[in-house]
Write a structure and sequence with these properties.
- By secondary structure, the chain is α/β, with parallel strands linked by helices.
- The protein has two domains: 171 residues, P-loop containing nucleotide triphosphate hydrolases (Rossmann fold, 3-Layer(aba) Sandwich), CATH 3.40.50.300; 193 residues, no CATH class.
- It is 48% helix and 9% strand.
- The chain is built from 17 helices and nine strands.
- The strands form two sheets. Strands 3-4-2-5-1-6 form a six-stranded mixed sheet, sandwiched between helices. Strands 7-9-8 form a three-stranded mixed sheet, with helices on one face.
- A hairpin with a 5-residue loop joins strand 3 and strand 4.
């Protein structure tokens, strides 16, 4: 099935009309088409003959997903409209999605995950009629789509919308290599690092650092991997360094972690939490992805030994194939390098931490879980 988002942040350019006519044209060619009304104004559903019927809508699935509740039944979800076009309606409550999804894990992927569950395999095309504004709804539609169609009119504001859409489309996915693994430019990751804390500083002003100093790659990174370290902070110089031999998917989050130390966050559990919070609130999809993945590693490593069934359920429900690829590659990398040398290095570093008033020592990395649960749990 090919998913096409019909989108422009400018209203009144014919998105709904384009969606309906494209659907009708595809149906006339013998294609099986499903339309999704993803606009709180609900114009697409009305266009196709839908009247308010108290039935389930895409809004109900969004609300359940971000509230970590069971999804409603799909019975009656897909309606049959004019010209043989099937559609899923929205409701006015979709306008509250920005608030509902604000602290959802992987909020940009909510719609994509839902569509994988609710859309039958029989359709050739799924057309998404998007709302006319930038924000989490549009980003969800773009992430869920294989293609984007941008209707424009020959006027200045419509063309401005086209330019804005080009900016919005670019960052909705991270680059991947032929094996499906995270493959973003590490040089760009380091260059964008100084801006990662800009949003978190609004919530925690004490984290502001002027000027924000660029983290550096470690020259002897492979050696650091053998010793079991992903980064090093030198408190005497204020210099933060990151192991670039480690799996690339974790490097943006590690950059954010080491920058926490630059902001005088000394304890490792606090630096882990602050780094994750900075990454996921940064607005940079590359750092957001890495931050969420790193946070999941912390949480799932704590959960799996005590409740394997709960851990398995989370993996099956929330892990995409891309996440699984990066997760497995990260585990395989560190498993291959596990050795007595790493254990000795950990013991030395543990003594160093305890000697600097960090009572938990290297175990302080695991204490990050309490902070993550408190922060994201209270905002879920």
């Amino acid at each position: 099935m090919t998913t096409i988002a019909i989108a422009n942040q400018k209203g009144g350019v014919g998105k709904t009309t384009t969606t309906v006519n494209l659907a009708a044209g595809l149906v006339s060619l013998g294609k099986r088409v499903l339309c999704l009304d993803f606009d709180p104004q609900c114009h697409l559903a009305k266009y196709l003959g839908h009247t308010h019927d108290n039935g389930v809508t895409i809004t109900d699935f969004i609300a359940a997903k971000v509230s970590y509740m069971d999804l409603p039944s799909t019975e009656g979800l897909i309606r049959h409209g004019v010209a043989g076009i099937d559609f899923i309606p929205a409701s006015l409550r979709l306008s509250r999605a920005e608030t509902m999804m604000a602290q959802a894990m992987f909020r940009e992927q909510v719609l994509r995950d839902i569509l994988e569950i609710i859309v039958p395999d029989k359709y050739d095309y799924l057309l998404i009629d998007c709302n006319p504004s930038m924000g989490v709804l549009l980003t969800n539609a773009l992430v869920a789509a294989d293609r984007v169609l941008i209707p424009v009119q020959t006027e200045e504001f419509s063309l401005d919308g086209l330019e804005d859409m080009g900016v919005e489309i670019q960052p909705t996915q991270v680059e991947r290599d032929g094996d499906g693994l995270f493959a973003e430019s590490l040089e760009e990751v380091f260059d964008r690092g100084p801006a990662v804390y800009e949003n978190l500083v609004q919530e925690f002003p004490f984290l502001e650092l002027e000027p924000s100093v660029r983290v550096k790659p470690l020259f002897f990174s492979r050696l650091q991997s053998i010793l079991g370290f992903t980064g090093v902070y030198f408190p005497f110089t204020g210099e933060a360094n990151v192991n670039i031999d480690a799996p690339a998917c974790m490097i943006p989050a590690t950059v954010a972690h080491e920058m926490a130390h630059q902001r005088m966050v000394a304890l490792e559990q606090e630096a882990n939490f602050v780094g994750i919070a900075a990454a996921v609130t940064s607005g940079d999809p590359v750092f957001q992805y890495s931050g969420y993945l790193f946070g999941l590693v912390q949480l799932c490593n704590a959960l799996a030994p005590v409740d394997r069934d709960a851990w398995t359920a989370i993996v099956q429900q929330y892990f995409t194939q891309e996440m699984a690829n990066d997760w497995n590659a990260n585990n395989a990398y560190w498993a291959e390098l596990s050795s007595p040398v790493e254990e000795t290095a950990e013991q030395v570093y543990d003594s160093f931490l305890k000697g600097n008033d960090q009572e938990l020592g290297i175990r302080s990395y695991g204490a990050c879980v309490d902070l993550l649960v408190a922060y994201f749990g209270n905002n879920a």
